[in-house]
Specification:
The chain is mainly alpha-helical. About 40% of the residues lie in helices and about 5% in strands. The protein has one domain.
């Protein structure tokens, strides 16, 4: 139950789009099941880790998440710790719980928000595809 609710909480925080929940779930499951991707690397866990930092003076409002934020020492940091975070990062709704229990059948290992105000994501299979999507939606300034 703990694992399902933790996965569902990630889904809840990563997308407001109903049709994407099962795909976010598939990315989680594909990464957890792959030796090539030992870390989930979910930005939502970084936001949670900073918001719940034990030193209130260190709490940061981190939007967007920057590379410096990824260094936080937290059991919720999925960039530095393998597997799922220590526990849920949100209170998931029933749709996210269902998606956690029944992920889409996909070959996706990555996703990136489209940065267009819709909340939609682009899902990709390879790091090269992912990097192209990131460059498309977040061009260098």
């Amino acid at each position: 139950m703990h694992e399902v609710i933790t996965i569902a909480s990630l889904i809840e925080r990563e997308t407001p789009i109903a049709a994407e929940r099962e795909y976010i779930s598939s990315v989680i499951m594909n990464r957890l099941g792959s030796a090539n991707f030992p870390f989930l690397e979910f930005d939502s866990t970084i936001v949670y880790a900073w918001a719940h930092h034990p030193d209130p003076a260190q709490v940061q409002n981190i939007h967007p998440v920057l590379f410096v934020h990824l260094e936080i020492d937290s059991p919720f940091n999925t960039y530095r710790r393998q597997g799922l975070p220590a526990g849920p990062i949100a209170s998931p709704g029933i749709a996210a719980i269902r998606a956690a229990m029944d992920p889409a059948d996909s070959n996706y290992f990555f996703f990136v928000g489209r940065n267009d105000g819709t909340g939609n994501h682009t899902f990709t299979r390879t790091l090269a595809e992912h990097n192209r999507a990131v460059a498309r939606y977040f061009p260098p300034q």
